[in-house]
Amino acid sequence: xxxxxxxxxxxxxxxxxxxxxxxxxxxxxxxxxxxxxxxxxxxxxxxxxxxxxxxxxxxxxxxxxxxxxxxxxxxxxxxxxxxxxxxxxxxxxxxxxxxxxxxxxxxxxxxxxxxxxxxxxxxxxxxxxxxxxxxxxxxxxxxxxxxxxxxxxxxxxxxxxxxxxxxxxxxxxxxxxxxxxxxxxxxxxxxxxxxxxxxx
Amino acid sequence: xxxxxxxxxxxxxxxxxxxxxxxxxxxxxxxxxxxxxxxxxxxxxxxxxxxxxxxxxxxxxxxxxxxxxxxxxxxxxxxxxxxxxxxxxxxxxxxxxxxxxxxxxxxxxxxxxxxxxxxxxxxxxxxxxxxxxxxxxxxxxxxxxxxxxxxxxxxxxxxxxxxxxxxxxxxxxxxxxxxxxxxxxxxxxxxxxxxxxxxx
DNA sequence: TTTTAAATACCGACCGGTCGGTCTGTATTT
DNA sequence: AAATACAGACCGACCGGTCGGTATTTAAAA
Lengths: 200, 200
Hints:
By secondary structure, chain A is mainly alpha-helical. Helices cover about 75% and strands about 0% of the residues of chain A. Chain A has helices spanning about 5-25, 30-40, 45-50, 55-75, 80-100, 105-115, 120-145, 155-175, 180-195. Chain A is elongated and about 65 Å long.
């Protein structure tokens, strides 16, 4: 195997291992030594690939956010109306619970780190803002097509939509087996959709 | 001043100081030495009042949860219908943003700690479960009084209601000045309420 | 009322251990 | 020979927690 490929593999192993450890124990409680041990990699290798623990975290965030954004990319394509498209996305967002099995608590870690470290924060705002804008656009489109009531504020509605998703995510982290999260998510979003429906 | 009172004052100083520090830097990143320094208290005093750093955190959680539950205690009393009562609670929940000024990021800390340490988790489930049950009861009452559609699942709706509140709280921590959180919360809850309304 | 012993509140030097990060070297590839 | 990819001993800073000692209060005994 080429030297270069070997390096990439080591890097990915480090990324995978640290994702698992950060999810389980949190950023601070996870030591670099622990990551190296679990990944069967020396400390020298670690610092060859990442300048610091922080930087590894940032890289982890990058790849994770990309994968989540990618999952949403194709959602709602086949829907004919906006409410239908939103429902499809809710169903998919529920699917996230399965797809990213065990990789969810890391979201909490991203959040806390972002709320405290500007460098992390800046990496997180962009995709978050994109989501918000995207949803606001969908709500506006729903109003335009007559599905939603004109009195609905698209920006506030977008906040509410993301809140439901995030709030349920949080509850799911807290109580992994507390409910059928996929079904609850879908019905929750449905409730908000119904709340926006045209009151003719 | 009596010795006893002096002790209580020291304890409270420790509690206040650690609340601020945990909120700002997180549990792990806050050292006992730092807490003591900020509180102008010796380490001996610290360990006289608390058996460990963990125990201080638990005590902090106790008082914080009590104060939040207390804030909600009297909400929705003067309302005549369930939707009105819910709206009043939403307005009040929005007021939390002001009332617990700066003391919100600690919620994130409670959440992460709870998701990882059983001792913390158990302290948090009870009030959380109480909230959930309370809301489910309100939704059921709303159905009974004819305000809400019978097809609404009270338990799922309660999850959704709390999700909106929690999700917006999370967003508010992330972007303190990102929106008029009180207004957004109220309109968000209103959207869900409208979604539950009787479809006669 | 005075004496005194126990209890409470506090002090801060100190301890074993862990942490993130460095540095010197070696093996392999280019 | 230069660059890449690793190996792991090592370092100083710092961490949570301990411990022997002191000052003040309290309450019972004399």
